[in-house]
């Protein structure tokens, strides 16, 4: 059992700002106290596991008192940082954070030099083994948050299933599909629900962390998966603007991008999660 506090938070399907974070189990003073432990919010896999490795094997020697709180959604870790319930988080990529800050008027920023890993997005199915086996009118489940939905559609486009409007970038939605020869239907779901949707759809595009939690391997089970080279979706340590130079944050950033952590990621995840440093 991990030495963490597991948090289950209700997530608004719209991705709107979620208030009322008393369920975090950490009072605001202790989380924001720069002389106290560094409290970091993370999704369980792989971020929680990576932080646990750092806590158990590297933090004490570096003089870092690290506390990890696990969340099971993509909204609460940011609202918790913004409101001071935790000091930092580790769960997201830059396109997602940019979109979140814009929509919620938050000011969370990446910690310089602390991009840790990539979770390849993959297409999974119990009904087909190749994308060209998709039938006309098939239903494909995709994440419903803005950037990961765009990422899912781009993965399908890169593999010849559909075409997106030119220049749509990180904000693509099904409305931006300009060519859909199979007349695919898209089922938009909160990312954590996608693994449970596989039995009900023809295929699902699932984030790497949620695939792993469902015992799906992006390296072995995905029909197709994202390539690591040149990928903008690396996950990083993030804090509220102005906290980037906190000594505890700098220590954790250095530990998270250490040779020991790279070896841990390579050995534990065998290509399903890829170190980004």
Question: How would you portray this structure in words?
Answer:
There is one protein chain. The chain contains 9 helices and 14 strands. It has 277 residues and is an alpha/beta fold. The chain folds into 2 domains: 38-120 and 232-275, D-Maltodextrin-Binding Protein, domain 2, CATH 3.40.190; 122-225, Periplasmic binding protein-like II (D-Maltodextrin-Binding Protein, domain 2). The strands form 3 sheets. The chain has a 7-stranded mixed β-sheet, sandwiched between helices. A 5-stranded mixed β-sheet has the order 10-7-11-6-12. It comes from Streptomyces alboflavus. A lipid is attached at residue 24 (S-diacylglycerol cysteine).
Can you lay out the helices and strands and say which pair or pack?
Layout: E1 5-7, H1 28-32, E2 38-42, H2 44-57, H3 59-62, E3 66-71, H4 76-82, E4 88-92, H5 94-104, E5 108-118, E6 122-124, E7 139-143, H6 146-158, E8 163-164, E9 177-179, E10 185-189, E11 203-206, H7 208-213, E12 224-225, E13 235-240, H8 247-256, H9 259-269, E14 274-275
Parallel strand pairs: 1-3, 2-3, 2-4, 7-10, 7-11
Antiparallel strand pairs: 4-13, 5-13, 5-14, 6-11, 6-12, 8-9
InterPro entries: Lipoprotein_NlpA (IPR004872)
Pfam families: Lipoprotein_9 (PF03180)
Family: Belongs to the nlpA lipoprotein family.
């Amino acid at each position: 059992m991990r030495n963490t506090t597991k948090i289950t938070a209700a997530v608004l399907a719209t991705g709107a700002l979620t208030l009322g974070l008393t369920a975090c189990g950490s009072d605001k003073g202790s989380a924001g106290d720069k002389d106290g432990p560094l409290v970091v919010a993370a999704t369980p896999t792989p971020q929680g596991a990576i932080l646990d490795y750092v806590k158990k094997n590297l933090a004490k020697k570096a003089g870092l008192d690290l506390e990890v709180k696990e969340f099971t959604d993509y909204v609460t870790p940011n609202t918790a940082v913004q409101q001071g319930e935790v000091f930092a988080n580790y769960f997201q990529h830059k396109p997602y954070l940019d979109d979140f800050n814009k929509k919620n008027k938050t000011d969370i920023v990446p910690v310089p030099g602390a991009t840790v890993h990539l979770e390849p997005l993959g297409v999974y199915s119990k009904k087909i083994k190749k994308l060209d086996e998709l039938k006309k009118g098939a239903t494909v489940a995709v994440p419903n948050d803005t950037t990961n939905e765009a990422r899912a559609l781009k993965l399908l486009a890169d593999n010849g299933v559909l075409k997106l409007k030119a220049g749509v970038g990180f904000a693509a939605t099904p409305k931006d599909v300009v060519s859909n020869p199979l007349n695919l239907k898209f089922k938009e779901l909160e990312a954590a629900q996608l693994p449970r949707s596989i039995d009900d759809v023809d295929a699902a595009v699932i984030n790497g962390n949620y695939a792993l939690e469902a015992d799906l391997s992006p390296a072995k089970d995905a029909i197709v998966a994202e390539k690591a080279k040149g990928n903008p979706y690396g996950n990083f340590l993030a804090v509220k603007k102005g906290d980037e130079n906190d000594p505890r944050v700098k220590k954790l950033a250095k530990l998270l991008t250490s040779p020991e952590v790279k070896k841990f990621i390579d050995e534990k995840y065998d290509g399903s999660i890829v170190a980004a440093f």
